[in-house]
Amino acid sequence: SQTIHQWPATLVQPVGSPLSLECTVEGTSNPNLYWYRQAAGRGLQLLFYSVGIGQISSEVPQNLSASRPQDRQFILSSKKLLLSDSGFYLCAWATSYPGELFFGEGSRLTVL
Amino acid sequence: GESVGLHLPTLSVQEGDNSIINCAYSNSASDYFIWYKQESGKGPQFIIDIRSNMDKRQGQRVTVLLNKTVKHLSLQIAATQPGDSAVYFCAESSNDYKLSFGAGTTVTVRA
């Protein structure tokens, strides 16, 4: 069966520090991968998606970047965090359209 | 860009009653719709989906209705239980792999 792992689960970082969130998917190949952000009490905003290794599409201009070094690995990064980067970050995958996105358990980032 | 939204941010329902959660969308090209449930501190979980060539789909205790004429989507939960308390999101997609989410409705079940 397919599983998705996302870490770390929680992170408290000072403003200006770097960020790296990792996501890996098991049990499937060539998935579409996604990073969403959820502000407190809000909906999910699509940040990045990837249809293959090295292929990244950015949905909104921001302080973050994404990379896909391997087929089932998706990384969200920042060189210098801003207060506004705080939120709940969710990784997701899908293999067919139409079809559901399968979400990870999320990473809660607090920037102080 | 196109948006997906919900009519009400909160819904309080008595245990055992039926719940109806509404969602409006604006993209007439949307062809796939999905409902997710999110419990506090967790990732969203799939509830039910529907394609634009259908107007109703039923699952276990849940029904999704799609009215393309007025661009309206609803989720009905039968015999609401305490475990149904969560935030519910509708999402839509238009012939691509990207889902756009609404703001969510918080459902609280009263005992």
H and E order of chain A: EEEEEEEEEEE
Radius of gyration from the alpha-carbon trace of chain A, in angstroms: 13 Å
Q: What is the helix tally of chain A? A: 0
What do the pLDDT scores of chain A average to?
Answer: 93
Main β-sheet of chain A, in a few words?
7 strands, mixed
Measured distance between first and last alpha carbons of chain A: 38 Å
Given as residue ranges, the uncertain stretches of chain B (5+ residues, pLDDT < 50) are none
* Helix-strand makeup class of chain A: mainly beta
DSSP strand content of chain B: over 45%
Fraction of helical residues of chain B:
under 10%
User: How far apart are the termini of chain B?
Assistant: 41 Å
Major beta-sheet overview of chain B: 6 strands, mixed
Helix and strand layout, with pairings?
The complex is a heterodimer of chains A (112) and B (111).
Chain A: E1 3-7, E2 10-13, E3 19-26, E4 32-38, E5 44-52, E6 55-58, E7 65-70, E8 73-78, E9 87-94, E10 102-103, E11 107-111
Parallel strand pairs in A: 2-11
Antiparallel strand pairs in A: 1-3, 3-8, 4-5, 4-9, 5-6, 7-8, 9-10, 9-11
Chain B: E1 4-6, E2 10-14, E3 19-25, E4 32-38, E5 45-51, E6 56-58, E7 62-67, E8 72-77, E9 86-93, E10 100-101, E11 105-110
Parallel strand pairs in B: 2-11
Antiparallel strand pairs in B: 1-3, 3-8, 4-5, 4-9, 6-7, 7-8, 9-10, 9-11
